[in-house]
Amino acid sequence: MNIVLLSGGSGKRLWPLSNDIRSKQFIKIFKTEAGEYESMVQRVYRQIRTVDKTASITIATSNTQVSAIYNQLGDGVGVCVEPRRKDTFPAIALASTYLHDVKGIHEEAPIVVCPVDPYVENDYFEAIKELGKLAEGGDSNLVLMGIEPTYPSEKYGYIIPADKKTVSSVNAFKEKPSEEAAKEYIRQGALWNGGVFAFKLKYILEKAHEMIEFTDYEDLLAKYDTLKKISFDYAVVEKEDYIQVMRFAGQWKDLGTWNTLTEAMGDACVGKVIMSDTCDNVHVVNELDVPVLCMGLNNVIVSTSPEGILVSDQMQSSYIKPYVNQIKQQIMFAEKSWGSFRVMDIEDESMTIKVMLNKGHSMNYHSHERRDEVWTIIAGEGRTVVDGVEQRVKVGDVIMMPAGCRHTIIANTELKVIEVQLGKEISVYDKQKFEFIK
Q: Is residue 49 in a domain?
């Protein structure tokens, strides 16, 4: 099974847990059988591996999400990186050329494309295997998964099948409708469009070459910024005559708002939370290392993180986006391929950050032109390299790096560092990377 997972979007509706570089699929909120918490992307990846241990999984994503993907899934996961977000058709075209030219997937191989963040059970991925087999059979150029609707939603597009068979041809596609129109579509037997497509690799390669002038993966990557922003539905699906849809009646949820996310939470509380018996239908997610106490609340969502604090009526939480758009501030937390960081304090000419590096990982070898930095080791052991000079470091050691010097830190064990940045112009853009050979 060859699967391309589309990982896009930025965080607005699930603020303060999500932000511009931490999308909803990276929030660790789902409890595993081992009692630990995992994110949507970890859950989906685990489910695919459970259904098909040999599945080839490639995640199509943007530059801003690569570090979080490697952090949560490991360095071995396949990633196809968009230089810039251009909607789903360019992303799928790039991923398809990546599979063919870089990974060597045969052009007759079936490919299934699906979102990285549906809340589903394993039967969804069993159905995806069947979808791939249908595409391989060649009775149609495209096979879609249609979700049996549970209510007349205005959030999804609709697929009108020709009949009520498990697999049927498609009569029409309908865009996100009004509730009344959705009711009529459902009466006609319509299915939600879950954004899942299956096809032979050569089909999309041909479509990509029809719409874009390029030679191979590297050429397409170089031209990516010039591509038209267009969805796969508009560019391909709605113009295809030989198309089928397969019904799926299992559990499927799009956890795009706090209201829907809380429906899938295994526990009402995540993190340090105390809740009195007088609370009813209250959900709390606390990412801070301080306790949250809730008393006498009904139908309320509380969420705390370094980005901010949300206290909302459950139904009102769906209307958070315009308020979050008014918030302009420094990113306070992010997962990187090497670990994570959390901003602890910001002053006019300084910033204090707590950095955690995973064992065996290191930062890029880099420099800053407009700020000095000071590292204080608070846990673990490792090595620093400052202008080519290597030094072993342990708890209590302090390393000073004036502006302009090249530096990195390597974790021999899990390593925790307090980083203080000092300067009049502290910016994420003040960074130059260099090649470093360990």
A: yes
For residue 287, the SS3 value is: coil
Stated pTM of the model: 0.87
What tens digit of pLDDT does each residue of 380-435 get? 999 999 999 999 999 999 999 999 999 999 999 999 999 999 999 999 899 999 98
Which ranges constitute the DSSP H helices of 292-379?
A: 321-324
Inform me whether the pLDDT recorded for 6 exceeds 90: yes
CATH value at residue 420 = 2.60.120.10
Backbone CA torsion sign across 309, 313, 318, 322: negative
* Cα–chain center distance at 257: 15
Q: 33 and 172: one domain?
A: yes
Within 13 A of 354's CA, how many CA atoms are on the CB side?
A: 8
Question: Are residues 353 and 341 in contact, defined by beta-carbon separation less than 8 angstroms?
Answer: yes
Of the candidates 434, 433, 437, the residue with the CA atom closest to the CA atom of residue 410: 437
The identity of residue 58, as a single letter, is T
Which CATH number goes with the domain that contains 111? 3.90.550.10
Q: Is 383 contained in some domain?
A: yes
